[in-house]
Amino acid sequence: MSQTPHFLLEQAPQATGQAMVDGMHVGSAPSERTAALPRDAGGAIGGATLRAPANVGAATRLGEVATPSRLPRATRLIDRVSREHLLLGSLVAFSWGSMVFYGSLDTAALLDIMAALALAGLALRVPPARGCAGGIWWAGAAAISAAGTLRYVGLFTGGQVAWLALAIVAASVVVALTKRRVVVIAGTAAGAGALLVMAITGWQWGRVGIDVFRLLQTATSALLHGQNPYTPTAMALAQTAPGVFVSRPIHFCYFPGAILLAAPGRVFGDVRIMSVFAFVALMAFTVRVAATNRQALRSYRVLALCLAAPTTIAMVYNAWLDVYALAGLAGWLALRQSRLPLSIGCLVVALTVKPTLIPALLPFWLWSRRTRTDTLIALGITALVFLPFVVMTGIGGLYHDVVGLYGQIGFRYDGLTLSAWWYQRTGSIIPVAFSVVAGGIVAYLALRLRPTDLSTPLIAGACITTAAFLLSKQAFLNYYFIPTWLVILALAARGVPFAPPSDVRLPRPLDALVPRAIARRLPSAVG
After folding, report:
1. Of the candidates 225, 228, 318, which has an alpha carbon nearest to the alpha carbon of residue 271?
2. For 270-285, what is each residue's pLDDT tens digit?
3. b/e for 63-89, b at 16 or more Cβ within 10 A?
4. Helix, strand, coil shares of the chain as percentages rounded to 5?
5. CA-CA distances (angstroms) from residue 190 to 183, 298, 302, 314, 316?
């Protein structure tokens, strides 16, 4: 049985000279149309069969042209692999890499993260218009990712956690496969309810044994009492040797936007209330990005991945702040074409919470003039957000708390990083020069491609952040939460226009350095 395609392909290309893939017009002449479609000349794209002359194919001998049937089987299979297939594989690897050992050092987890990076890098090389993954692929990826919630069985007490995890798996599969809106609503309600119950299963109101939560509770309490939130201290653990931790007092070490966003939850005694709302906003904005091309089926499948992400419960339970920044980024992406003031407000949220999201924005800043303008406006508002705290704390004090402290933080021997893994086996840390060179190579490969649709800069951002975390002094589950959701956003954004062609341009100094011969080779259109 053929599967219903979830992108549109015009039925009479001979008459119109155009094909539409996920809302994108591909080509206006036969040569352009052929270049944008899969090289498998007789292959099926989203369920629509394309026929080609018998002389289309790869040359087997000098002067001989092979027919499609004589193409190597491996070549035909590779040509059918779409960007969606690779991104779904990357998402599964990120999900399990984060959950295998709860984000701490483990060889299997490290291999999963590196596999996710490799698959995301390959996805950058595949034209976004080359086909799409079927419903079975989406449902399979959702099911495998959601199965990662079974890892919480050992973290929380009570056998009901396993049943809740299985309910999340079933709900995500149903939402990914159905085409009926009423079934999607029912499946979403069941999956979201199971997520919420699992999140509060081990919830002790106003208490959890992690320094991020204590810092946020203390800072928001001070703010609500009219005090400087950067003045009180909370105890945090610092690792001085493998298995050796010391407790020391530190000030709140994140940007002031986190305090402002979490403060309403502190009114009711627990800042994690706002983490729940942040997740609702993140999922809603992600689905809105997918709905840009007015395709309900794609929106349903992206919603299934949002429900299936296994790191949700850990992020809420530990009050990790990255969800606020991701929600701001997703809001900016969802609203930037229609509601400019609101989208800039969301970008301000992304910039005022935590600096770990900044590398993900590099592809947007590099290739979009409008993004650079929006960012300048957002940075001006961000400065106004910082200003009261600078006045209360002083420039030196605030700098030390939110920037300088990270330079003093020691190496984490249990982090999910290459250096921690290397130290475990050799007793030495990877040299900084190696990390700089390796990270620079990944950044160059990710940034040099001209964006063809909105998914391209998101994938590039996922590659850059993953490489940065793998090569850093410390990285745990909440760090890899960022590239995981960048991949989900990339799946939602495939086929969504990145920007008008006139807007896609390097900054003037860099644009002048790129020779025209090289610039002509950079992909400038879909495909």
Report:
1. 318
2. 999 999 999 999 999 9
3. eeebbbeebeeeebeebbbbbbbbbbb
4. 65, 5, 30
5. 11, 20, 16, 19, 19
Write out pLDDT tens, residues 366-412.
999 889 999 999 999 999 999 999 999 999 888 888 888 777 777 89
Which residues on neighbouring strands pair with residue 439, listed in sequence order?
none
Q: How many CB atoms lie within 10 A of CB 218?
A: 19
Q: Which residues contact 148 (CB under 8 A, 6 or more apart)?
A: 95, 96, 98, 99, 310, 311
294: left (phi over 0), alpha (psi -120 to 50) or beta: left
Tokens 């993954």 correspond to 133
Between the two ends of the chain, the Cα-to-Cα distance in Å is 29
The residues pairing with 235 across neighbouring beta strands, listed in sequence order, are: 249
Query: Helix (H, G, I), strand (E, B), or coil: what is residue 234?
Result: strand
Q: Which two tokens stand for residue 497?
A: 């226009």
Instruction: Count CB atoms within 10 A of the CB of residue 42.
Output: 17
Is pTM beyond 0.85? Reply is no
DSSP H helical ranges for 159-271:
160-177, 181-201, 211-224, 256-267
- Confirm if 347 and 372 have CB atoms less than 8 A apart: no
Report how far residue 312's alpha carbon sits from residue 94's, in angstroms, rounded to the nearest whole number: 13
Q: What distance in Å separates the CA atoms of residue 199 and residue 193, rounded to the nearest whole number?
A: 10
Amino acid at position 375, single letter:
T
Which DSSP category does 404 fall into?
I
Supply the DSSP symbol for 429: P
Find tokens 């020391």 and name the residue. 248
CA distance 463 to 444: 11
